[in-house]
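Incident review: delayed structure delivery

Summary: a single-chain prediction request sat in the queue longer than the usual turnaround. Root cause was a stuck worker, restarted by the on-call engineer. No data loss occurred. The affected request and its eventual output are reproduced below so the record is complete for anyone auditing the incident later.

Affected input:
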Amino acid sequence: PVMRDVMERFRPGAIVMQCGTDSLSGDRLGCFNLSMKGHAACVEFMKSFGVPLICVGGGGYTIRNVARTWAYETSVLLGEKLDPSLPYNPYLDHYGPEYLLDVPASNMNNLNTPEQLQQLCTEIHENLRHIPHAPSVQMQEVPRDWPDPSDESGEEEEEEES
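Output delivered after worker restart:
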């Protein structure tokens, strides 16, 4: 619920969500263990706020998993179901041996204890309490254009100088 608190606190008019996939299980550089469906659940959760949402890529170094995840997350954003079996295409060999639209979590040990996660959430909630809510911009009068195109006196001055 950290993001729920962030949304309530700041009430953004839009969200830009960076959906890098280096947190997926099996990523060449990342050392995390998210499944594709767990990753997409984050997108689904942010979509649930009903705020305009722009999702962009980034990060992810096991290309076959990046492609699978972004295809799946696009279907989540559109509210469409995809067949878990990948269709025949010239790149199908890159998705074997299972040829499925899935990136499952591995049997990697989760070194995050529930206590550590709870402590982290508590610290974030405490930090949020100290940030002013729903930041906004003060209303200010817009300065006039200079020279004002509707002001004919400027034209007269130019004619007098000629």
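Verification: The chain has a mean pLDDT of 88.
Action items: add queue-age alerting; document worker restart procedure.
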